[in-house]
Amino acid sequence: MDRAQLAAFLRRRREGLQPADAGLPVGPRRRTPGLRREEVAGLAGMSPDYYARLEQRRGPQPSTQMLDALARALRLTADERDYLHRVAGHNPPPRTGSAAYVAPALLRVFDRLADTPAMILTQVGEVLVQNHPARALLGERMHYSGLDRSDIYRWFAHPGTERRWYPESDHDRQSRAHVAGLRAAHAAQGPGGSADRIVHELHSRSAEFRALWEQYEVAVRFTDHKTIVHPQIGPIEVDCQVLFTEDQSQALLVLTAAPDTEDADKLQLAAVLGHQQFADPQPER
Asked: Less crowded by CB within 10 Å, the N or C end of the chain?
C-alpha cells in the first residue's frame, strides 16, 4: 500500500469533482474546490473520519469493497479504478462481468433522476446503485452477496421472496425474459463469468430454469410495460426505459407512469411512504 500516492490521488479526484457531478446540491459558495471530504464519505458509505485518515496518509489499508465504493463516489473511470486498487495494495478486480465498477456516464444521468425510480444493473441483474424512489418501490436491492446479488438468480432460487413484487399472472413471462437475458449475458461473458456461475447453480436448483434454458431464447428485455405489486399500495403499472453503456455490460433502468394517472399518483405515494416499513426479508434457504 502506497499511502502517499493513495492520499494524493483521492485528494485530486475529490477536488476535480463538482457537486452537480455527484448529484449533490451546489449550496452556498465553497471555500475549497470540488467536493468536501464528508461528502465523499457520505457517497461512499463510510465515516468522514475514516476517509479523512486516508487523505492524511494514516489510514489502514482499505478493503476492495471500500475501494469500489470510493470509485463509485468519485466517479472514476475503469483505468482510474484499477489505479486506486493498485496504490492501495490490491489487484484490480476483473473488468468483464464485474459488479464492482459503475460506468461514470450512467452515474451522471442517474444522479439527475431524484424523483423517479432508477437503478443501474449489470448484465445479470445485479443492482449496482438505486435511488430512494426505487428502494421505496422495489425494496433494498444492494444488500445481497454472492449469487444472490443477481435478480435473475433470486427469481429462480428464492421465488417466494423475489416474485411477490409481480402479479402471479406475469410470472411466466418474467421467467422467460430472465432466462433469455441470462443467455445473452452468458454468450457475452464467456466461460467463467458471473452468468456462467449462475447458469451452473440454477441447473441444480430449479426445474423451471432447466426447462426454459433448453428453449434457447435470447433477448435483452429491459424496456417493457409491467405491473409492480407494492406491499402497501398494491399494483402499480409502470413503463421501463433503459440506457446502456456502449458494450451493453450495464444498464440504467428508469421506471415511470403515465402522467396524470392513478399509477403516477401511486408512484409518488410510494416514494413518500419510503421503504423502511417493508424492507426485503432475507431470502429463504
From this structure: C
Q: Poorest-confidence range of 66-70, 164-168, 244-248?
A: 244-248
Can you give the pLDDT at residue 278?
A: 44
pTM: 0.71
pLDDT digits (tens, 9 = 90+) for 48-103: 999 999 999 988 899 988 898 898 889 888 788 889 999 999 988 766 545 567 88
Got the DSSP string for 74-130? TT--HHHHHHHHHHTT-PPPPSTT-SS---HHHHHHHTT--SS-EEEEETT-BEEEE
Q: Which domains does the chain have, with CATH numbers?
A: 3-87 (1.10.260.40), 104-278 (3.30.450.180)
State residue 128 phi and psi, 5-degree precision.
-90, -40
SS (H, E, C) 206-271: CHHHHHHHCCCCCCCCCCEEEEEEECCCEEEEEEEEEEECCCCCEEEEEEECCCCCHHHHHHHHHH
Residue 263, number of CB atoms within 10 A of its CB? 19
Copy the grid coordinates of residue 85.
Answer: 486498487
Distances (CA, A) of 47 to 71, 140, 182: 16, 21, 37
